[in-house]
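Side project, low priority. Logging it here so it doesn't get lost.
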Amino acid sequence: MKVILFLLVLLICLLPLIESMHHTDHDTLNNVYGEPLQPCRIYHNNKNRGSWDTEGYCSEMDRGVHQICVEVDNAPNFSLQTGQGDWSEGRTGRNHCMCLGAWALYKAKQKSTDPDIRTEETNDELKCESIPDTALSSRYINKWNRWNGHELDGQIINGITSIYTQCMDEAVTQSQQNNLQTKYNELRARIPELPEYP
């Protein structure tokens, strides 16, 4: 009994330290504009899940790399189009952190010339202030090309260029545009198939 009581007191004492360590992660993350990363989650409750961390940020740096903040209402049939069932249809009015591979596949299907694959094109589903700049780093190049066996050739190009074009359209300052352009150009140096933008 004393051991359990000791462990409980220790946990209570260490909890603020553990939480503060978690919070500082977001203080160091920037979005694709070079500004502090914003949460993707719109509101918090136990039923509002969206592949974000405990504070609502698209900050996953391993596994599926869920870093693309999307307004689900503006991404029709996202989960069906990426081979995940129809769960996204029940998430209306919410955002979701998509993984890089699923996002790239979703956008590649929109650009496909095959009528059996092609889906409705969208261009206003991103929440760019909530996408970490790491999504446009060379660290994750391989994550863009894979998605649970549902890959399409060249999907990395579609995924990255759609982030660039949508976020450039959303940018409101020259500084945001410059930072996004720099991140894109750095990635383009590693992936020469990416189109050149001014």
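Brief comment: Residues 2-28 form the longest helix (27 residues).
Revisit when time allows.
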